[in-house]
Write a structure and sequence with these properties.
This protein has 2 domains: 3-93, Orthogonal Bundle (DNA polymerase, domain 1), CATH 1.10.150.130; 107-185 and 238-317, Intergrase catalytic core (hpI Integrase, Chain A, Orthogonal Bundle), CATH 1.10.443.10. The protein is mostly helical and 318 residues long. The chain contains 13 helices and 5 strands. The protein is globular. 47% of the residues lie in helices and 7% in strands. Pfam families: Phage_int_SAM_4, Phage_integrase.
Length: 318
């Protein structure tokens, strides 16, 4: 496989400001595509080879439709953006996305899961449920985006690269303030070692170098250790590990004796469902979740339009 080709792929992905996770996924599937065809250069392949690869994934590897579509998008990106040869008349092979109903926990089940959590882990789960955040949204939360006075959180660069405002539940105020103090403690320690600079998106660190070393840009939920940034190679403190949080939540769900296929994202589903059960307008819920299309929100229920002004988080009712 041409290493030079993969360097071009990464450069193009970063030029488009795709996330590091997207970069890793695209590179993985492009490499898999090339390996499948025994390291034949993509310039010497086309629609036929792409269809063969996708058929192999679906029939032999039996991957899920969403995984197949991710692999397809990766290869399309390679030909369209890197090689300058957009593949034509091939979209027909895209797998039909799975339409799954979300798993939702009852209030009693959520109380039970939370009883097996403590400290910052419990606080993160409370925000997943109490604010309707996605997993990476809670981990990437910055100190500056917590507004106690207005009782809200500002979610920056969420899914679809959109910002939104969601509710900050009162029951977490005290613990969240303690967590911010803890982040400040880590910040002061890192300052002594001159590794207190935090990652900032879209080259903001170059435009505002002082901001990258400021307290208010620090992550609320920081990693317990300093590490090397995989893109820049700089030594800095990143946010709490997503895989570690997922593992702790899975353990708590198991300890609570819940037999549903639940995960961190289940708390966001439960947030939406419980707000609708409490009579909040579906468009209000849509705004809080950051859904572009109302039909995405409607998967939770086909319920009412009663209206609602100031939203009280369902966490306050536990």
């Amino acid at each position: 496989m041409s290493e030079r080709l993969m360097v071009r792929v990464r450069k193009k992905i970063r030029l488009k400001h795709y996330s590091y996770r997207t970069e890793e996924s695209y590179c993985h599937w492009i490499k898999t595509f090339i390996r499948y065809h025994r390291y034949k250069h993509p310039d010497d392949m086309g629609n036929k080879e792409v269809i063969q690869f996708l058929t192999w994934l679906a029939v032999e590897k039996q991957v899920a439709p969403n995984t197949q579509n991710l692999a397809f998008s990766s290869v399309l990106f390679l030909y369209r953006e890197v090689l300058g040869r957009p593949l034509k008349d091939i979209n027909a092979v895209r797998a039909k996305p799975q339409q799954k109903l979300p798993v939702v926990l009852s209030r009693e089940e959520i109380r039970s899961v939370m009883s097996f959590l403590s400290g910052s882990t419990l606080l993160m789960v409370q925000l997943l449920y109490g604010s309707g955040l996605r997993l990476m949204e809670v981990l990437r939360l910055r100190i500056k985006d917590v507004d106690f006075d207005r009782q809200c959180l500002v979610v920056r660069d969420g899914k679809g690269r959109k910002d939104r405002v969601t509710v900050l539940p009162k029951p977490v105020f005290a613990d969240l303030k303690k967590q911010i103090k803890k982040a400040e403690h880590y910040y002061n320690l890192d300052k002594l070692e001159n590794v207190h600079e935090v990652w900032m998106p879209n080259a903001l660190a170059r435009k505002y170098p002082a901001e990258a070393k400021s307290l208010h840009w620090q992550y609320v939920f920081q990693s317990c250790k300093v590490s090397l940034d995989p893109r820049s190679g700089r030594k800095r403190r990143h946010h709490f590990s997503d895989s570690h949080l997922q593992k702790l939540v899975k353990q708590a769900i198991k300890q609570a004796g819940i037999l549903k296929h639940a995960s961190c994202h289940t708390f966001r589903h439960s947030f939406a469902t419980h707000l609708l059960e409490d009579g909040y307008d579906i468009r209000t819920v849509q705004e809080l979740l950051g859904h572009k299309d109302l039909r995405t929100t409607q998967i939770y229920t086909h319920v009412l339009n009663k209206g609602g002004n100031a939203v009280q988080s369902p966490l306050s009712r536990l």
